[in-house]
Amino acid sequence: MKKVLLTFILLLAGLSANAIPATIEAAITDSHVNKDAISVSVKNTADGKVLYEHKPNSPIPPASTLKTITATVAADTLGNDYEFKTSVYKTSDNNLFLKLSADPMLTREDLETLMKSTVSKKIVEPKAFYIDDYVIDGVEWGEGWQWDDDLNPLMPKFSPYNLDGNLLTITVDPKKKGAPASIKLSTFYPVTFMNLTISSDKNSLEISRNNHIAPDVITVSGEVNSRTQDKIPVNSPKRYFIIKLEEAISSAKLEYYGAFPQKKLPSSNVTLISEIKHPLTSVLKGIYKSSNNMMAETLFKVAGGKFVNNTGSIKSAVKMFDEYCKKNNLNNENIKITDGSGVSKNNLMTADFMTNFLVLQTQRADFNDFMTMLPTAGEGTLSNRMLYFKDVIYAKTGTLSDISAICGYIKTRNGNLVAFDIMINDAKLSSSDKKATEEQIIRAIYNKY
Q1: Residue 20, SS3?
Q2: Residue 10: what pLDDT?
């Protein structure tokens, strides 16, 4: 315990004197960042008073810090007790309906549980099996997403048919030196591997595909000396879902071999047979702490659907956001939202709006729960950053090419709770330098206010 205390004291000592710029201006100047490319806003949460600002109304793509807004507004619409439900219903004429909720946490094991539960209710040979997938639209990627990132496991497609995170796991095992390695998937999906790998003394693999020519052909090239696993996005979430549904049906010995037409669940003469639920709080944790893009996109659309009482879309979700701002007197004239995750550079945010939004959240009865759902130092996207601020800072980070951002709350040396937002859009500064600049600014905030 004494060693831990000593370490903490030494870390705090690093925040004093020479380690902390005298002012935020000094932190910006010392970083050599282009001053026109950085936007900063700092406000006291007690009264919303501006403590510091630098170009606070300059619109900048916020990267994943946008999730702080989209997930929060979505949760406000859905309610904290909301659950994603995937349900099997039976009609009076012996038809089955699978009603989807676009549950971003649904797994193929969940599908097996649903089908086994259905069979346990003495339902073994339905006439037809329909899927109600009207919860959100079929647009599977965000506006402005980069086509050359289609194999990025952080950016899988999303749809009503979300399953297993919409990701496949590829395992590459070396063989005799100089021979091709073996490649396999963790579960069946109809893809073809172009195996250009060599068993060697080093690991250097590259995975690629050309969606315009052969979307189900995966090229794996390079060298491998030990078992290597990579995740890649499923090219067609619906196709993957149907394959896994068929496998679940077969495993449960449900006698059905037909297609799965799209059809809305009737409003009457139906009986709930089985259901899988996942709470909103689990999805929010994945969004805030791990910055899960698929979860953020799905949640935003689902909430938009509830807002308009129809199929969810980005258009309906933006309507929901606009109404939230109107209801809470937030001026969003300079804000543009084009997706739910912040992946698109078409999104625009101002530091002033972000800190106004964060100050507004302090009025919530469950504010402490909300704040601590954001990562503190040592957690999630802050796992390796600002460890000396553990349980002092709660913040959401964001990173895109040329862009780095961070927003959240910090309990200052003087005992104040401060809301802050920092966005840097500087192509010449490295990602590590931008993050170092953010941390120097945050240190100055902690020390000064």
Answers
A1: coil
A2: 39
In this prediction, residue 17 carries a pLDDT of 38
In whole angstroms, give the CA distance from residue 207 to residue 279: 35
- Report the range of poorest mean pLDDT among 4-18, 71-85, 196-210, 243-257: 4-18
Query: Where does the pLDDT of residue 6 fall: very low under 50, low under 70, confident under 90, or very high at 90 and above?
Result: very low
Find the length of the chain: 449
- Measured CA to CA in angstroms, residue 33 lies from 154, 302, 420, 434 at distances of 28, 39, 19, 8
**DSSP per position, 63-77:** GGGGHHHHHHHHHHH
pTM of the model: 0.92
Q: Where in the chain is the domain with CATH 3.50.80.20?
A: 83-139+237-278
Query: What DSSP line would sit under 283-345, residue for residue?
Result: HHHHHHTT--HHHHHHHHHHHHHHHHTS-B-HHHHHHHHHHHHHHTT---TT-B--SSSS-ST
Residue 310 has pLDDT above 70, yes or no: yes
DSSP conformation letters of 207-233: EEEETTTEEEEEEEEEEESS-EEEEEE
Residue 164 pLDDT: 98
Tell me the DSSP string of 233-296: E-S-HHHHHHHHHHHHHHHHT----S---B-PPPSSSEEEEEEEEEEHHHHHHHHHTT--HHHH
Classify domain 2-79+282-448 by CATH number.
Answer: 3.40.710.10
Architecture label for domain 83-139+237-278: 3-Layer(bba) Sandwich (3.50)
The pLDDT, as a whole number, for residue 32 is 81
